[in-house]
Amino acid sequence: MITEFNKQLLISEKEFNTFHLTTTKYCGNMKDVNERNVFCSNHSIDYQKIVFANQVHGTVVSKVSSKDCGNFIESCDGLITNDKNVILCIFTADCMPIFMASRDYSVVALIHAGWRGLACGIIESVLIRFKEDFGIIEQDVFTYIGPHIAQCCYEVGKDVKVTFNLSQSDKNLSLLKEAVTQLKDFGIKRIYSSNHCTCHETEMFYSYRREPTQNRMMSLISIL
After folding, report:
1. Terminus of the chain with fewer CB atoms < 10 Å: N or C?
2. What domains are there in the chain, each with its CATH number?
């Protein structure tokens, strides 16, 4: 479900009918405002319409609108909107960017999900916002999981194993498997995912696990 585009960004195909993307290392450090704005200008993205999540590995998902454009929303790891004049943004360097859209593409959401967010319920949090703020039930939500650290590279300790009910002989955690299991348990049927690993694809992605860094990729989504 992923196509590489000029080694600059990753975009999904037609099954997920929104504007959305995840950048690669070729685009530069997207936490740097100058590099980010250059990238946006080069790809005809209006950076003045972007709303950012100030991520804390929590479960808060904030409803935003055009009045929030240009701002970082404090202490949240997810954004949701029905405003066509808004582009949602999160940053990652191993965690999962999870893109969501309603069946009619009138509402989109974007969450940052690492093991802590998954364990504490960020997927449930965003689905609650779909339902309570927009009247959209889980079965009418489409989901796409972007590039993240894959099970092959994600060795975890005892506490994480206990959290996800892994046996002590299991060395590695699959964030994708855990996310898909939760999504299916909530009744979501349309789930797409990337097969890229941010950790071992060294030329394409930043990875905090591979090499602790402040550099980040950027994921964006907006209503067409």
Report:
1. C
2. 2-149+176-222 (3.60.140.10)
